[in-house]
Amino acid sequence: MCEQKHQRESIVTGQSLAERPANEPAITTAAAAPRLNELAPDFRALTTHGPNQLTDYRGRWLVLFSHPSDFTPVCTTEFIAFAKAHPSFQAIECDLLGLSIDSVFSHIAWARNIKEKFGVEIPFPIIEDLSMRVAHAYGMVQPGASDTSAVRAVFVIDPESMLRAMLYYPMSNGRSVAEILRLVQALQTSDRQKVATPEGWTPGAEVIVPPPKTTAEADRRVTAGDPACVDWYFCKREAEEDLSTAS
């Protein structure tokens, strides 16, 4: 198991545990992850755009995402995809904020390299988290994957600073930025229209009406004969057009 863990980390960082400096402390435990529908952990950090804190984003949606390391292939593909999707996130009043346990100088050099080699400019800030404080506060450090890097984590935070969704990915596999955008759109639609969204929902598709909370309401649904209702607990309707349909 230890050998497999070392191999997974080496794939991403190019450095095995055995190659670390002897005086570099090992982290053996992970901080408790934050919980859904609670306030997201506050932070203040240095980024490629200057000092940054969570309260800067109050009133807007935020996708905070971590990556294992700068100058690695999978992370590079993800950042290119996030950069290309940045206008779509901005259109739904959602900001992007990256993070890794690298210095701001590394972030700047990597962003410049992406622009030079791939022709893509990174328009959003990237947090320097050398102390790992933000990473630990959000449960981004998973010792089973790596004890010196953040895993591929995604946190969707709403305008009230509430944590609405969390996603964790293995070190070896990149995320779908299109799915993250879709998730934010779905959350916004649920909030605005007081509905749920079915599997694979995309903006403009039918939404699910919340199930009845009383037997009388359930009876009314059955007797009403609404073709949008398959049964008393399962009804759909057309989604209203709103900001979350922007692309």
Automatic annotation (TrEMBL):
The active site is at 75 (cysteine sulfenic acid (-soh) intermediate). The lineage of its organism: Bacteria, Pseudomonadati, Planctomycetota, Planctomycetia, Pirellulales. Thiol-specific peroxidase that catalyzes the reduction of hydrogen peroxide and organic hydroperoxides to water and alcohols, respectively. Plays a role in cell protection against oxidative stress by detoxifying peroxides. The active site is a conserved redox-active cysteine residue, the peroxidatic cysteine (C(P)), which makes the nucleophilic attack on the peroxide substrate. The peroxide oxidizes the C(P)-SH to cysteine sulfenic acid (C(P)-SOH), which then reacts with another cysteine residue, the resolving cysteine (C(R)), to form a disulfide bridge. The disulfide is subsequently reduced by an appropriate electron donor to complete the catalytic cycle. Its main location: cytoplasm. It catalyses: a hydroperoxide + [thioredoxin]-dithiol = an alcohol + [thioredoxin]-disulfide + H2O. Residues 34-189 form the Thioredoxin domain. It comes from Lacipirellula limnantheis. Keywords: Antioxidant, Cytoplasm, Disulfide bond, Oxidoreductase, Peroxidase, Redox-active center. This is Peroxiredoxin. The keyword Oxidoreductase applies.
